[in-house]
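Researcher: I've got a protein sequence and the SMILES for magnesium ion. Could you write out the 3D structure of the bound complex as structure tokens? I'd like something to compare against our soaking experiments later this week.
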Amino acid sequence: MKSALSNLKDILQKKEKASHLLLFLDYDGTLTPIVKNPDKAILSPKTRNLLKSLTKKKSITVSIVSGRGLKKIKSLVGIKGLQYAGCHGLEISSKVNGYAFSHIKKYLPLIKDIKKGLAKQLRKVDGAQIEDKGIVLALHYRRVPKATIAQVKQIFDKVTKPYIESKRIRIGKGKKVLEVRPSVDWNKGKYCLYLLNNLKKRYKNLLPVYIGDDETDEAAFRALKQKGITIFVKGEKKTSSAKYYLSSTEEVVDFLKLLF
Ligand SMILES: [Mg+2]
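Model: Sure. Here is the predicted complex with magnesium ion in place.
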């Protein structure tokens, strides 16, 4: 990986050649620093103003691509005119019912069952936090004491095992989080390609730029590596298949200001 800031000239050259930019931004760990309580991951006024000004530009389409539920990410960012994707692209704001595929709805009862099972087993475990995002269930263990983390993972494996074996769900892993997702062939990378192909009808010479920090962003890095500019934000996770890196969420803002 190369530093995006030290290689700004190369990136600007690519940008000059494009007639339209499609800027994909992850939220947690990319636009806001990772915090112990996810409800406290609030955009700084500086970052929000920057996003607002980018959204107003005719030559850029901005899409927030988050693992959070669509409703949550929309309220956290709170800017109109952006394209939002929640639950790693399974939820899409521009779709009529909000889902990438309408058949995803059939997974809702299943996710509820798993939630019940996990809640029961984790009742006495300190710090384990279950987040129901509708179509995705997250088990956060950032606040679980170190000595109990293995136990939490064991419980998660036990509860989800029958559903995995019957191929009804998939497991996702992120920073101090385990997730239950519907067993559909979809991820952040597929969402990016979907939006890219949609916009290709309107714009020629479209350049995608993706900035993200976590495991789920890797699918997008792989999907876009040959097509555009992929940038990894270094934090708890150190390695990535992105071409460039930035060292912090502050650097993300600096970079975007220099680029636009
Ligand atoms: Mg992230």
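Model: The CA atoms of residues 14 and 207 lie 8 Å apart. Residues 26, 28-30, 212-214 surround magnesium ion (CB under 6 Å).
Researcher: Great, I'll pass this along to the crystallography team.
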